[in-house]
Amino acid sequence: MSRKIVGLSLIVIIFSGLFIQYQIRAPRRNYSDYSCFYKAGKDILQGKNPYIKDSEEISTFKYTPIFALFMAPLAIFDQRTSASLFFLLNLCAVFFIFKLSRKLIFYKEISANNEFLLFVFVSLINFRFVLNCLHSAQVGLFIMLAVVFGLFFISKAKNAIGASFIGIAVMIKYMPALFIPYFFIKRKFKISFLILVAIVIYCLLPGLFIGLKYNFFLLKELIPHISSTSLGEGAFLNEKMQSLWAFPFRAFTGISSFSATLFTLCIFAILTVFIIISNKKQIKKEKELFTNCLDYGLVFILIPLFNPHGWIHNFVTLIFPTMLVIYYLMVCNFKDKLVLSLVVVYFVLTTFGSPSFVGEAVQTILERFSIVIFGSLFLFAAIVKIKFRSMLSMDKEN
Q: What is the torsional sign of CA 318, 151, 165, 65?
């Protein structure tokens, strides 16, 4: 009981500190990306077009009508109160991501001390991504929470509920749609179909609240708006874009858009092979869930790597694969030195490249060399190593 009290006390202290810091930091930065979310909520309430950017906005709204509708209740408040509520919701998302990920990943219990250390390690390793998401008032944590909720319900054979959660994640940002072909390839056709149905429903649902005509107008505006603001070559040349779509433009001087796209698609195909490969033999249910989690971890890594806008905050999805790897290391008593080494390299490349350690100038140089991309690929390699070891051990059991 005392250990739980200590843990909860630490959570309260850390979350309170982050909230106080946000109260000081956010107004100075015009509430970062939240300003466009807040405006979108206002626009929905007033029947305006949220895809038209104001001169004062830092970024433009690139999300679906249902997300704008979600922002409408928060837009009732003044911007500071609204942003504070959004920040608190993000903190709650962090808590539930850890809780649900634990339920999915742990196929056998570990000691309370090891579990506490696991949460500490995962938090430290991914702190840069979480903090960036919180500071920029972004939606990556909500997206991940929705996906983890979906996977949790799918693990309980409640496919319709699980698909509805993954569908809402796709409606916030489209990259979680990678789970649709994943389930299709794994011959779980019903889940893929249910996610697609959920997406269609979520596209139409705002019409019940804002009117069908207004909703269809917004849907018609959305795709051209995203393509014109997110998919230009200029965005890929930004060194802060830690995306495999941006990587070839920085790595190969003068490369054409066609060649860069072909390069990225080849990398995607190679990485996807490691997800497709699986053991065809019958295995115990708890081991099956863990092997599924290994695949989920790989997909979670692909989500930010192949997001055309590979901002640092998108890498919060690496919380799940990091927890997966640290849990595996604790179960095997850290005997797998290769996996341990890969995780250490991942931590060094992604964490020590932040301005807190190296300063803004060096950070810019490291981002130009796509250091977060390479760090994420080391984590990907660690999970592939675990996956192949798990497949071999299952062959021996059978």
A: positive
Report which residue type is found at 363.
Q
Enter the tokens of residue 144. 């991940």
Where are the chain's structural domains? Answer: 106-137+235-398
Round to whole Å and give the CA distance between 201 and 179.
18
Q: How far apart are CA 347 and CA 241, in angstroms?
A: 19
DSSP string, 288-344: HHHHHHHHHHHHHHHHHHT-SS--GGGGGGGHHHHHHHHHHHHHTTT--HHHHHHHH
74-133 pLDDT per residue, tens: 999 999 999 999 999 999 999 999 999 999 999 888 988 899 899 999 999 999 999 999
pLDDT, tens digit, for every residue of 22-43? 888 878 778 788 988 999 999 9
Q: Please, which residues have CB within 8 angstroms of residue 232's CB and are 6 or more apart in sequence? A: none
Q: Which residues, other chains included, contact 287 with Cβ-Cβ below 8 Å and sequence gap of 6+?
A: 107, 390, 394
Provide the whole-model pTM: 0.91
